Amino acid sequence: MLLLIFAAGAAVPGFPVSKEIIQMQQQLDTLQQSVANMQKTVDTQSAIIKTLVEQANDNVNSMKATIADLQRTNSQNLATSNSRFDTMTNQIQALSESLEEAKARLSKLSDQMAQTQNIIQTLSTPAVQPNAAPGGAAPGATGTAPNGPGGAPVVNAPNGAPPGNAAYYPPATPARAPVPDPDTLYQSALRDYTAGHYDLAVQEFQQYIQYYGDTDLASNAQFYIGDSYYNEKKYDQAIGAYNTCLERYPNGNKLAAAQLKKAYALIAEGKNQAGARELRSLISRYPHSHEADLARQRLRRLT
Length: 303
Hints:
The chain is mainly α. It has helices spanning 2-11, 19-107, 109-124, 182-194, 198-212, 218-231, 235-248, 255-268, 272-285, 290-302.
């Protein structure tokens, strides 16, 4: 329109400019000024938005770094907590079994005390020579034996023993110590295991299996033999003892625990694949057991 107006003005020289054209020019100037102001406002707002976006990106990056640090810290704490939890679980399990077995032992305590008193009385009673001759004569003495002083018969005494009127009693043979009853032997071994006396506990549990290998607690004793070796970091011997527990006592109540600790021993030796196979086998055989939960946690740490 401006070009047309200018062209019309140029085409008609000396023609006066109308008031409408002047108003249009003023409106055009006002419109241009408004556009310039709007452009300035848009530029300012764009700069502010850009600054806010950059700040938001910085905050997001900082939050990502903080979250990553928290994840690393939580992973480390979880690994440490799992290791402590495994140890505490084993200790609590041993203490629980010790408590249950102690309750059963209390009911038999009176019988054990009676047995002990009988043994003490047997050991303290002097041995009497069997088949003693009447009248105080020693075995082997005959009616033709020479008389000693005062007409008393002389007793045939062994070499080194002086003759006399009293009968000769040979020294009593020491009585053989009786085998402890199963409860006493098992409880003694379990106390040594709980106290950390693993060498002594292994000997006592082995003695228990030797004399009472057909009892319900024989599988427990075999498991604790393996656990004693494991706690001493004798992993090869521990694996062998756990295998014996699994193979010899297929109906025992320590099968899941023995397979779990066998897997731990394999992993401790650096045999991660073999250990992982044992853990998966344990989860498949005893999916709802506490040992299966521990096996899942250890598998997650292996991967």
